[in-house]
């Protein structure tokens, strides 16, 4: 399967907060077909919490173009590029589980 599931068990005492950071690099390149390639990310909101603050950055080679991005009405909050890579940033409060899909094409 081309899926990876990340999770962590963490005790958070009442009336306190904790920040959890994950960094992940794909072990294999994104597969491209005639219509390009797609990357999907599914984020599950913390059960029992009314809203969960969430931020993610998807980095990709600068020569790739984004054909379409979004999912569950969450457009990226910022798109930027550096010398060798570009990125999409999502920064929001999750009211529910969300699925993000980014479709790339190569020149």
Distance between the amino and carboxyl termini? 28 Å
The averaged pLDDT comes out at 79
Structural class: mainly beta
The largest sheet, given as strand count, sense and whether it forms a barrel, is: 3 strands, antiparallel
Strand order of the largest sheet: 1-6-3
**Morphology call:** elongated
Which regions contain 5 or more consecutive residues with pLDDT less than 50? none
What is the string of SSEs from the N terminus onward? EEEEEE
Number of strands: 6
Number of helices: 0
The residue fraction in helices comes out at under 10%
Radius of gyration over C-alpha positions, nearest whole angstrom: 16 Å
Percent strand equals: 35-45%
Protein architecture, described:
The protein has 107 residues and is mainly β. Helix content is 0%, strand content 42%.
Summarize the structure.
The protein is mainly beta and about 110 residues long. Helices cover about 0% and strands about 40% of the residues. The two termini are about 30 Å apart.
List keywords for this structure.
107 residues; mainly beta; elongated
Detail the topology: elements first, then pairings:
Layout: E1 37-43, E2 52-61, E3 65-70, E4 78-81, E5 85-94, E6 98-105
Antiparallel strand pairs: 1-6, 2-5, 3-6, 4-5
């Amino acid at each position: 399967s081309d899926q990876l599931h990340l999770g962590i068990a963490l005790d958070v005492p009442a009336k306190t907060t904790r920040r959890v950071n994950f960094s992940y690099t794909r072990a294999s390149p994104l597969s491209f077909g005639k219509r390009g390639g797609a990357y999907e990310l599914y984020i599950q909101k913390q059960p029992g919490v009314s809203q969960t603050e969430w931020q993610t950055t998807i980095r990709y080679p600068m020569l790739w173009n984004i054909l379409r991005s979004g999912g569950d009405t969450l457009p990226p909050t910022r798109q930027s590029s550096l010398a060798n890579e570009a990125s999409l940033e999502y920064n929001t409060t999750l009211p529910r589980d969300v699925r993000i899909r980014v479709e790339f094409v190569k020149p």
